[in-house]
């Protein structure tokens, strides 16, 4: 059977295990020899026990677990050609020419670069007598399929990244808990949520928790935001509300591109309204815990599709990323999605928020 390996890379997210499970089982079902690569690209570079053959039962009882059982890492060695050479050697000697990468845009870009270099890496290995001529010929094509695992929902081409829905569950649970204590003490709470440069988690959280105000990177508030914020909070209190909730995305910025932090917002509220105010930074709680049903199914669907894409690949097939589009699992050209995702980052850096939102698309 064909050699196929799966690995998770970059920040973890809930639902990655479901995706790993699906890749392993679909691969075995289709007659592949399936491997785990542990600790992301680092495991690929280091080889040894990090690359281990998987069987049907090695992915039993993981679908409900948060994080990734095969580990994840941000790898510096893979950035250098020397590291990629070692990785190629580790794959060829095991007969692995199909890779499923589950990660963010950085991890997917790395995989694409690796594929582009594959022929020259193999030539160098042959020159150095690390592989045989037969191996050079037999394993000359590397096929890649990606899936996006991230709580941030910041990748172009998919309606939802694997992990976002679970993170929202975690956040909403926390806010509901905060609301009850805020109510008792008539307090104002400022909640900082993750998302890096993406405001998706913050917006959905604000809408589903009846928050009074939200700060996100894609829509920096007008220069008089302090007045608007205070007016809104006052108005809510006057109409009988006992508490206020303000959501601040960790990447929130003002129109000059300077960060708007929970501390800054708190100072505005306390100085102007003298409200009893607290900050809660949810942090990595958002990335932990068991995956939601949605993320489990999403991981399963994406994983199966990724393996099918690899099995159907020809030498000419470009690397794909499997995404969700209107509840359909689809295959998109990996690099086009990465380019669009980078264009969003550039538009944000250029303070062209409208373009950023437009480029990001449906999500
Ligand atoms: O990309 C996922 C994410 O959780 C972001 O929301 C956050 O900015 C970042 O990772 C935190 O990174 P680390 O886990 O390295 O602290």
TrEMBL record:
Entry function: Catalyzes the phosphorylation of D-fructose 6-phosphate to fructose 1,6-bisphosphate by ATP, the first committing step of glycolysis.
Subunit structure: Homotetramer.
Residue ranges of domain Phosphofructokinase in the record: 4-309
UniProt source species: Loxostege sticticalis
Positions of ATP binding: 11, 74-75, 104-107
Protein name listed in UniProt: ATP-dependent 6-phosphofructokinase
Highest taxon in the source lineage: Eukaryota
Record-annotated active site: 152 (proton acceptor)
Location of the protein in the cell: Cytoplasm
The family this protein is said to belong to: Belongs to the phosphofructokinase type A (PFKA) family. ATP-dependent PFK group I subfamily. Eukaryotic two domain clade 'E' sub-subfamily.
Binding site for substrate: 150-152, 187, 194-196, 250, 278, 284-287
N-terminal catalytic PFK domain 1: annotated span: 1-363
Annotated residues for binding of Mg(2+): 105
